[in-house]
């Protein structure tokens, strides 16, 4: 119940601010929540290391590249 009480108190305080300060507060809260959201879901490209390795397991890399190049020219 304390969280709701804190929220209600903050909302009441925000409502008592002049309009320009309310907008400043809104911008600050949006920036803060965007920063939290963007770092919380971040992944590293390094997590993809080895993904699909079984596809390339018995494939000669040079042969594959040559076949791809040949397919470009028709």
Describe the structure.
It is a single chain. With about 70 residues, the protein is mainly α. The protein has one domain. It is about 70% helix and about 0% strand. It contains four helices and no strands. The chain has helices at about 1-15, 20-40, 55, 60-74. The mean pLDDT is about 85.
Number of strands: 0
Low-confidence stretches: none
* Quaternary: single chain
Measured between the Cα atoms of the first and last residue, the distance is 70 Å
H/E series: HHHH
Query: Helical residue percent?
Result: over 70%
| Overall average residue pLDDT | 83
The class by helix and strand makeup works out as: mainly alpha
Task: Characterize the biggest β-sheet.
Answer: none
Give a quick summary of the entry.
The chain has 74 residues and is mainly α. It has helices at residues 2-15, 19-40, 53-56, 61-73. It has one domain (2-40, 50-73).
């Amino acid at each position: 119940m304390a969280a709701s009480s804190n929220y209600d108190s903050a909302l009441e305080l925000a409502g008592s601010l002049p309009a320009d300060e309310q907008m400043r507060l809104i911008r600050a809260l949006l920036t803060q929540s965007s920063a939290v959201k963007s770092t919380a879901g971040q992944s590293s490209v390094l997590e993809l290391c080895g993904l699909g390795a079984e596809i390339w397991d018995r494939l000669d890399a040079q042969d594959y590249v040559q076949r791809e190049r040949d397919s470009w020219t028709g």
